[in-house]
Amino acid sequence: MAHGVKIAESSCRGCVNCIKSCPTEAMRVIEGKIRILSEICISCGECLRRCPHRALLPEDDDWDYILSKRPMALATDPCFCAQFSWPPMPSLTASALSELGFEPIFEEYEAAYDVAAIAVARAIQNSPEITKPLISTYCPAVVRLIQIKFHELIPHLARVENPLETSIDLWRARTKKREPVALVSPCPARIAMVRSPVGRDFSSAEFVISTSKLAREVLIGTGDPSKKVTIDSSTETPRWIAWAKTGGESMHVRAFSDQPVRTLEVDGLRNVINLFQELELGKLRGIDYIEARACDLGCIGGIGNAESRFLSRIKIDNVKMSFNITEQYQKQLEALYQAKVWILRDEIVPIEQMPLGEDLVKAMEKLKQLHAVYAELPHLDCGTCGRPSCRVMAEDIVRGEGSLDDCIFRLKARIADLSREIYELSKRLVHTMTPEGK
Amino acid sequence: MSEPLVLKLQVKPLDFLAAGETAAHFKETLKSLGLPPDICRKAAIVVYEAEMNMVIHGGGGVMCLQVEEDKVTIISKDEGPGIENLELAMKEGYSSAPDFIRELGFGAGMGLPNIKKNSDELHIDTAPRKGTKLRAVIYLDKRR
User: Fold this and answer.
1) What's the CATH code, domain A5-58?
2) Which of A3, A337, A416, B8 is most buried, by the most CB atoms less than 10 A from its CB?
């Protein structure tokens, strides 16, 4: 399965900084180089943040190719608009992108994000108590985290398509254009969303590139668009911009719901995992919807951004946006809702991790072996064996992928034992020798 | 019938930071055995509530997980004050937790009822000042 992280082998020094940051323990160092177990990688980007040698990179498409190819339509993540010194207004960003010869498809975003908010609000209303709170599917890393580590929460995932995909679909339907679309992604997870989507066979985007690369091109290639496009202080920014930061989606859903909705917003992978553990223990009664984002502060905190997430947040907080809509537009939205443009076609299924043995008895045997192996290890979780913890090492060993001697402490102890034995042997007298030595 | 798999962990008294770790650990163990998610969930809830009881009331104790081919057994044992009135303690919302614990958000009186709801068999052996031993069984295949 494709994931959103690329390894730059020549930069990797085999240090073990990254393997400890992985929430699903999907990383190993083998023969001095990092390896990612792609079947359990959630593309959250934590390892990219940790790597001091920039050996881990977003697995996006070749930038020079994208830059050379025209026509090319761009579907940028909302956080792209917050990357610059000018206000996060799509009209300004669109002007800069057009100047570079790209075709931004911002016009479709309003309908796509609005219909997604309505779809979520109605899904909450129609959901039985047992599957509440519903969980947002906007962050692909969170969806995959649930598929891999929180199987019980799968029925809680709101089956609503990512509005970025819906935007592309709507744009194609309206314009009938056939030019390729590149999704501009702030994180490895959105890249994985294009490469191996969940809930649909193919992404509507043909290419995917990192926000930082396009932002840099805009910064060097064009002047400040706010000097060319007129905006004044009363200009409103569309609602969808708020989805770039934590809380934006919830705000939208609450505003578009007929009933009061109790939402809970959480960001940062550690917090998300804590919350899901609590949810699995049934501790979050009374909450209707959870907006969970893998990155701190939401998508503006993605590793692929150019701008400081703190500044991005201020920019978004400072713009005016409104949730009032005209009756006519309401009818349009209703039509889109009825046309089910927002629905995630396929069911989200759990990604099963291999149990230790093929049946319970064998698995229990293996688990006993695992505990015996674990007891032999120093429990320092130093990572020198190339694995994130002694427990993972023990698991790898009973699965037949490694030996106790991979542990540097075990190896030292064995060398000490061996040298003691050699010493003892060296003291043994040969029959021709006298105790005096000669 | 193979030997049951037995795991034992010490639960410390009033250690609210570590509370829940035993449940998380046991749940991971059950998942790695390939047991169905609803069994893992039920067992985790039972362990969690029993663990909290030992943290809050029991002065800590020992939590034991036993896996056999047909069932998962959870045994918690403490040397605490025991349960004064078991019938009352089994009622939803009844709690004997002191105020400072309720202020921490625990002690809602759902512990034992939750354990009962999530297990197929429940035996509690307790008497004032004699400690509490709880044994909950979850069968893997209910049809048997």
Assistant:
1) 3.30.70.20
2) A3
